[in-house]
Specification:
146 residues, mainly alpha, Transcription Elongation Factor S-II, Chain A, 63% helix, elongated, TFR-like_dimer_dom, carboxypeptidase activity, TFR-like_dimer_dom_sf, Transferrin receptor-like dimerisation domain-containing protein
Length: 146
Amino acid sequence: MITVRNRFMPGSDCLETQSGSSELLEKTVQELSEIVHKRNVTKLTELPFEARIDENNRLIEFEKCFINPHGVPGNPQARHLLFHPSADDWYNGDAISQVHDMISRIETSLNEQKLNHYSKRLAKEIALVNVAFICAKHSLSDFFTL
């Protein structure tokens, strides 16, 4: 998300309204990365069978966190928050393409009203991704039980 901030000119109102949510997202992703790295140290093959079932259930819950039941705006069949084709560029392989699409629309928008609309949609998309990462972080935490 840091590269997103560098794309905008200093003083851009659209960027300033999103900096808090992108910083929160960066923090959440960092915390999730630390949890995943700690979990990767344990060898699943050495765990008893029942413990491996529990780990599998946690991974299923982890994956469910990234499913948006409403789908992507304009493409309700694309329900995964991280990996789905971009509405603007089907050949581009960016993760969280809905965020990248909103950023490109903000960059090219000349209409102040559309710019405001895209800025609000960008905030919503970042918030959805952030909530998904928080859910994933909690699904892998030591205190999570089914």
